[in-house]
Amino acid sequence: MICWLIIERSTGTTGRLVMISMTTAPRDRRRVGNRSTGSAGLPDAAVERAALERFYELLFLQDHEQVLDLVTDDVRFHAPWQPPGMPTMIEGRAELHESMLWWSTELWSPGSLSRIAVRPFATAHAWLAEVEGEFTALESERLYHAMVLSEVRFEGGAIAEVRQYHNTLNQIIALGADVPGINVPGYGLGSNRGQDEAVA
C-alpha cells in the first residue's frame, strides 16, 4: 500500500503528520486536467478583447486616428501573404499611419466589419481573431469580401504585434485583376488545356 505523509496545518504555526492512503487522499478535481486559458482568465482580458474588436472595426471604417490610439509606439504589423508591391512588414506607429493613409487614398473606400470572433491563446495577452468585412476598391469599384485570420499580442494594454493572413486572391481580383477560371471564363493557369483536348 502506498501512503503519503501530509503535514496538516492549523491556524497556528505547528502542524502534525497524518498518514493517508492513496485511495482515500482528498482530490481537488478542479485542478485535474485543467488547461491554461491564457488571456481569458486575466483581469484585463475583457479590455483586450474589446480593444481587439474595436481595432478591426476601426480598420474597416478607416478611422486612422482611433486605430493609432490602440497600438504601442513600436507596434509590428506582419502580413506575409500580400499582393506584389504591398508591404509585408510595418514597424512603428508612424509607418502604420502612412500605410493606412495609402490604403485609403489609393486602394479602398471605407468599408464595414461584418463578423469577428476573438479567442485567447494559451499564452497570456495573445489572441486569435477571425475577421470578415467588406471594402470597395476605389479604381475597379469591385467589392472585396475580406476574410482575415490574425494572431495579436498585447503589451501594457495596447496592441504590440499583429500577424495577419488574408485571402490574397480575392483582394487581387477586387483590385481589378481578371483570373481565367476564377472570375472570368477560361482555364486559369492550365491555359494549354484546350490544346490538349483538341489533340485527344
Structure overview:
The protein is an alpha+beta fold and 200 residues long. It has a domain at 43-174: Nuclear Transport Factor 2, Chain: A (Roll), CATH 3.10.450. It has helices at 45-61, 64-69, 93-107, 168-174, 193-199; strands at 3-9, 15-21, 71-78, 89-91, 108-120, 126-137, 143-155, 158-166. The strands form two sheets. A six-stranded mixed beta sheet has the order 4-3-8-7-6-5. The longest helix is centred in the N-terminal third of the chain and has 17 residues, at 45-61. Mean pLDDT is 81; it is low at 1-37.
Q: The CATH topology of the domain at 43-174 is what?
A: Nuclear Transport Factor 2, Chain: A
The beta-strand count equals 8
Roughly what fraction of the amino acids lie in strands?
35-45%
Strand order across the largest sheet: 4-3-8-7-6-5
Distance between the termini: 79 Å
Shape summary = globular
> What would you call the structural class?
alpha+beta
Can you give the mean pLDDT?
81
Sheet having the most strands: 6 strands, mixed
Quaternary form: single chain
Tell me, what is the CATH class of the domain at 43-174?
Alpha Beta
CATH architectural designation of the domain at 43-174 = Roll
**Unreliable sequence segments:** 1-37
How large, in whole angstroms, is the Cα Rg?
Answer: 27 Å
Question: What's the total helix number?
Answer: 5
| Percent helix range | 25-40%
